[in-house]
Amino acid sequence: MASRDRLLKLFTRKQLYIYFITNLLINALVPYFGFEDRHAVSLFRGAHSMARFLIPMSVFVPFGITFDILKKCITLLEKKGLTPLLPASYSKVAFMLKLAGVNALATVSVVAGTLWLVHVSMPAGYSFEGGWLAAISGGIAGGLAILFTGLPLYVVKKLPSA
Known about the structure:
Layout: H1 2-34, H2 51-80, H3 92-121, H4 130-157
Helix pairs in contact: 1-2, 1-4, 2-3, 2-4
């Protein structure tokens, strides 16, 4: 059990760096270069709004990372012949899809709700600086990458042993 946990810890740390850096860069650079006028970006209006980048990101980052980290950890442990990650009574793919879906749904709800609150709090016609919004988008993506690299493994550790 100790070697399994140590192996998972090292593997997860490596994956965390990969997920964090790639999501930070991609989700900051794509909006930055995707804004038509970087000095006047709205949250919901227009073809180049911030919601166009944040809402899909808040679905795909949690879903993709949750599913990927669980799949990679299960494969790694099976390859090494160590104690399985999931109890025998759990279907691997169904469990991974369910947990990834729940994480994505919760995240998109929080992000969309926060965007809406900011939108109704701002005066009509208010626009934001695109460079700052792109940096915030990258920061959110990096934070989601950190959260959803560790959270699925934490949930799995809390499962009842079969």
